[in-house]
Amino acid sequence: MSHVAVENVHGLDPQLAALDLNSDLQGVPGRRYIPPHLRNKEASKNDSPGGWDNGRSNGFVNGFHEGRDNRMNGGGSFGGRGSMRSDRGGRGGFRGFGYDNKDAGGWNAQKDTAYNSFSGRSDRGKSSFFSDRGSSSRGRYERGGFGGGGNNRWTDDSKNDEDWSKPLPPSERVEHELFSGGNTGINFEKYDDIPVEATGQNCPPHIESFHDVDMGEIIMGNITLSRYTRPTPVQKYAIPIIKTKRDLMACAQTGSGKTAAFLLPVLSQIFTEGPGEALQAMKNSAQENGKYGRRKQYPISLVLAPTRELALQIYEEARKVAYRSHVRPCVVYGGADIGQQIRDLERGCHLLVATPGRLVDMMERGKIGLDYCNYLVLDEADRMLDMGFEPQIRRIVEQDTMPPKGLRQTMMFSATFPKEIQILARDFLEEYIFLAVGRVGSTSENITQKVVWVEENDKRSFLLDLLNATVIPNEVQDSTAESVEKPGKESLTLVFVETKKGADSLEDFLYREGYSCTSIHGDRSQRDREEALHQFRSGRCPILVATAVAARGLDISNVKHVINFDLPSDIEEYVHRIGRTGRVGNLGLATSFFNDKNGNITKDLLDILVEAKQEVPSWLESLAYEHQHKSSSRGGRSKRFSGGFGARDYRQTSSGSSGGGFGNRGARNTGGHGGNRGFGGGGGGFGNFYSSDGYGGNYSQVDWWGN
DNA sequence: AAAAAAT
User: Where does this protein have compositionally biased stretches of type Low complexity (predicted)?
Assistant: First the structure.
């Protein structure tokens, strides 16, 4: 479901709307990159110790006050506004935005039709195909098309006998489909001094350029098409490690290019080595089942991810890296029609991206055999190995036919990796190399982090003020001249809440307030989830209200602001959430609403802020100190708790960062909950403009979980 | 107590 603003109910104050974190300093030759925490120091000094800030005229903006050009773009192009809400259950609206299939037989049917018409289309159809492309994602409905690289028929023996390291012929259409998305210009040149730790026997030297290691013709071509110029820090280290067939546990900050760090070398290896035994296994399978009948697929590589949308995203990325190769990537995940996914698998599957539950299902149905899976990747590995997922991972990796560790190559990636999970992870690794780019679990300094004290009852009105200061209502977003100057400058805001119910009600509220918004959480149908993400990505709905489902891994360009309407209860979740902004060298802003309920995260949050060189509100420092003395023992297998074992302490080594956590303990006597936490110049600056609309009282009667 | 992940 998506909400598009009915009208511009909130006037736009140009001065406040100037949040433009992806600012002019980016990409301007000859001008030095200045990280957000170092910019506009003069203004910062004026801030009260309470931090957040003085109000509307100089908050949020990090020194960039240039006004935005407020041009009309006829924003209502989205169809009948009155029907905007009809999509919640049904299938209203949205035609013309990729949902142009009139067949109402379920959303999976759309894939079929899209694919059929797609594949049936000759190049004559190209012009219309190109021209109706808004910004990026052509979307999932063509997946399984030619995108995997062109070998739609593994049964074509003449092709299988070919050298997998040689590229297949190019296709202008596929190329355009895969690579016409937003430019992922990576500004990691500035990060050469980032501390890197690579431990383990015989760790190969890192590379400085993609040309420093032989990844073959296909990969190099696709790197060029993807407009990757230099490897990011994690790629510099992970690529040679993976190329030398080593197991790997890799930790690198959000948005630092982890996906390509494993896809490039893994696919490079597959291209070099060819299908091997898997080919014969598939031929046998085909003979048993009839040439065009059911075939069990034996992927050479498996990538596991914790959410469906992340799996889809990795799959899309894999299609790029596999372009012009013999490797056909597939993706399977729950919530979508399994028959459709099976048919896609049967067209050939050499690299499989999956969520665990659906993969187990596929294995039990005999559609997937992991017997020849030589490459296993756990993305968001700490999540995949925590309590919710660990049994399923063991089921897939240890209790089936996958080659044991030592025979297969196992790689794990995450931005966070609590020590206990690292230990658990060793079960799946052999002679592995531990790689930490930056400190494990730390946040990018490209993200300006703000923590502001907001009582539960004030959250909604505060959010509105925040949005008014940082979001341009849909109707006045420009799409013309300025966009040409700064491509893709849409400003997206991602609002995290703790519960599914909370997501529904907050989206509803924002909709009633006139904002173009949508929401995503695990109780939505898969179709709605993907639709919401698409509406957000495309900028159609520049506000997305989300639960933890969107916290990890999703790479959405133009997310300028992440708002923790509710703070999460553990610091890893916080790190991943705010990591939806400030990606690949861009700047971002993260604002977190903090109150009495968030005591459990106080200490870790403080550590994170200090580590990322962010301003720390003095009240937070005080609370952390109090909390440290108050709570002592709490248990939990996958959590770190209590004082002294904070966020920074689960690096594998204990070097560096001695103390320094509490910059100024003297401040503790400000009294914790005392008056020092003001957020609007002089207590309640952001008044309760909206508190009398009948919803505040209602809200205060429900408990913390909305029950 | 919540979210996620198969049906």
Answer: 127-138
Structure tokens at A513: 């307030």
Q: How many domains does chain A have?
A: 2
Q: Are residues A270 and A360 in the same domain?
A: yes
This prediction has a pTM of 0.71
Q: Are A331 and A308 in contact (CB under 8 A)?
A: no
The answer to whether some atom of strand B lies closer than 7 Å to the beta carbon of A569 is yes
In this prediction, residue A283 has a pLDDT band, given cuts at 50, 70 and 90, of confident
- Complete edge-to-edge strand list for the sheet that includes strand A588-594: A2-3, A517-520, A543-546, A492-496, A559-564, A588-594, A447-453
Nucleotides of B under 7 A from a protein CB: 1-7
User: CA A370 – C1' B6 distance (Å)?
Assistant: 18
User: Mean pLDDT, to the nearest integer, of A162-175?
Assistant: 95
Please name the nucleotide lying closest to A365, CA to C1': B6
Domain check: are A178 and A306 in the same one? yes
Nucleic strand B under 7 Å from the C-beta of A548: yes
Residues A466, A389 share a domain: no
* Closest alpha carbon to A423 in A652, A181, A242, A257: A652
* Strand B and A553 CB separated by under 7 Å: no
- Region A677-695: mean pLDDT is 29
pLDDT at residue number A700: 30
Q: Give A443-473 pLDDT, tens digit per residue.
A: 999 999 999 999 999 999 999 999 998 654 4
CATH number for the domain that contains residue A349: 3.40.50.300
Say yes or no: A374 and A348 in one domain: yes
Q: Which domain holds residue A183?
A: 172-437
A456 with A557, same domain?
yes
Residue of least CA–C1' distance to B5: A357
Query: Nucleic chain B: which protein residues 528-547 of A have CB below 7 A from it?
Result: 547
Confirm whether A546 is domain-assigned.
yes
Alpha-carbon span A251 to A442, nearest angstrom: 10
